[in-house]
Amino acid sequence: MRARGYGRIVVIASTASRIGEPYLAAYAASKHGVLGLVRAAAAELASAGVTVNAVCPGFVDTPMTAATIGNIVEKTGRTTGEARSALAARQPIGRLISPDEVAEAVWFCVASNAITGQAVNVDGGTVQS
Fold first, then answer.
1. DSSP per-residue letters across 47-88
2. Which of 2, 41, 45, 78 is a plausible cystine mate for 82, CB 3.0–4.6 Å?
3. Can you tell me the mean pLDDT for 103-118?
4. pLDDT of 111
5. What is the pLDDT of residue 12?
6. Which residues are catalytic?
């Protein structure tokens, strides 16, 4: 990318890279590290025409969130519906994010020549920056 003078790097991080969450210490630490790498690489590659950004989703309607819901059910005795509703309610829009909404944010980062070193939240307003 540097040799061509053009490139796009988009990393999928998480809202856990922006805020601390209980019971997610290792995951949050890894995602904070990813965000630091994005910022350092963006600073290093900006003059070469390469942008580096992160997309930070909240709870997305994916198998990973389904596993989280399963863990909540197992540990709390809530029903699957109650656990899913609890995660959806953590996002101000009141629902899980769709994978397509995450993809739209990735394309936004890919299309831009001037946005680099950023963490784009796709979380329904959970983390306001």
1. GGTEEEEEEEE-SBSSHHHHHHHHHHHHHH---HHHHHHHHH
2. 78
3. 97
4. 98
5. 97
6. 27
